[in-house]
Specification:
By secondary structure, the protein is α/β, with parallel strands linked by helices. The chain has a single domain, classed as Aldolase class I (TIM Barrel, Alpha-Beta Barrel). 46% of the residues lie in helices and 15% in strands. The protein is globular. The structure holds zinc ion.
Length: 286
Amino acid sequence: MPLVNLKKVLSESIEKKYAVGSFNAANYQGVEAILSASEEMNTPVILSIAEVHFRYLNLKYFIPYVKNRIAQCSVPVVLHLDHGLSFDTCIKAISMGFSSVMFDGSTLPIEKNIEITNKLVQIAHMANVSVEAEIGHVGGGEGNLEEGSEVDRSKFTKPEDAEIFVEKTDVDALAIAVGTVHGPYKGTPDIDNSLIKKIRNTISIPLVLHGGSGLSDDDFRNAVKSGINKVNFYTATSIAAVEKIKQIINGPKKVSFPDLTKAATDVIKEIIKHQIEVFGTKPLKL
Ligand SMILES: [Zn+2]
């Protein structure tokens, strides 16, 4: 199956009311867990690499490996840059062969976010690469496991801002702040489904939920029913993999390093398969 962009992979998701999972890989095991889970479920997937994880990877060799693995996959796959923090990183990702990039200008004033996103969209679309942007701001730190973050309602996405943003940028998917945070939660997550519905009725492009870890299966099902089409999910897989490793190390048997990484990879794969089912992801014919 070929590499596809975000626009293609989400093309039926609004009408058929499902979401496609976006799972982060920060090493070879992550790539294998994400792709083999999706192949077993026969559903498309978004394999994301976040800019904050670049430090774990030698991109020059890692990206060609990922592209080769995707080319031999039995399901459509998007290779997506998660939270590109600058215009330059997004351009670098496009030149390396990513089929989709997220520019995260959510901490900038909206006019500046529009200006940079618009410039990026014009270049990306010429290369058949899709662009995701974020307005409002999903709090917490990507990969931050130390302390939980609180939801800040003042940073929630305003439907009128979403409308202006999409009109002025021609962006392909929009991440919205509706009650989630990155990393662990302080307190219980409380998703504003009526806000998702309002934004869904205001704009016609796919909507993205970041900070998925920590939500219940029903939270996800309701968010998807309200209009979410892409769910970013990472922290919970990382925590579960580390717990599995601890359990094995503290157990009675001596194990090798490949045994440990294999056991952790299998745990991540099972979680991803479960999430795909919860998101209601449907097979996509190309
Ligand atoms: Zn995110």
